[in-house]
Amino acid sequence: MEVDGIISALIVGAVIGILGRLAVPGKQSIPIWLTVAIGIVAALIGSAIVGPLRDTDGIDWIEIIVQVALAAVGVLLATSMRSKRT
Fold first, then answer.
1. What is the reported pTM?
2. How far apart are CA 9 and CA 3, in angstroms?
3. Domain boundaries, the chain
């Protein structure tokens, strides 16, 4: 993977994480860096799940929806784990 691919993956992961955080109602008590990390992981997992089914050369909306849903689940899990610690 080249440098521009890594940078674009980080940017896409950050956007996916923020969208996932916005999809979860209420206030989340997790730092922004954790939101970005969750977004990056969700983007990678979502691409792995939907990637073989990809049939478009343009924007794959199904993949984006799956990635945001995974990020929302990740934000929920991270929030619940952090609230149990405090």
1. 0.81
2. 10
3. 3-85
